[in-house]
Amino acid sequence: MLEELEKINIENKERYLKIFKETIEKIKENKFEFKDKKEENHSIINIKNFVYIIPNELLNLFNKLKKQHPNEFLGFTVLINKTRITCFGIPCSDLSKAIIN
Q: pLDDT digit string (tens) for 25-58?
């Protein structure tokens, strides 16, 4: 399953990087609504104090991995206040650059 994730090439990564950065800012400012959302291109899933941004094309894979590894972080995470956030399926290096820039 993890090999599947490594093979995935998400188109329009910039869209998800933007959502990632915007969500980080909302969490910092205590303006983020911790509700699951399904948008046209992505879903936001909240589990305890963890926010997952997931491209819809990876939602089935995410659900399978979450069932197999329920206590694992699935990807690069950032801790903001008491909340962790990740953008599933986007390479760590891209997420790091998005935060730094």
A: 999 999 999 999 999 999 999 988 899 999 999 9
pTM score:
0.87
Question: Hey, what are 94's tokens?
Answer: 């891209």
Q: Where are the beta strands (DSSP E) in the chain?
A: 37-38, 42-47, 50-55, 78-80, 83-87
Domain residue limits at 58: 2-100
In the block, tokens 């963890």 appear at 50
Q: Collapse the DSSP code of 80 into the 3-class scheme (helix H, G, I; strand E, B; otherwise coil) and give the result.
A: strand
CA-closest candidate to residue 50, choices 64, 34, 66:
34
CB-side neighbour CA atoms (13 Å) of 98: 24
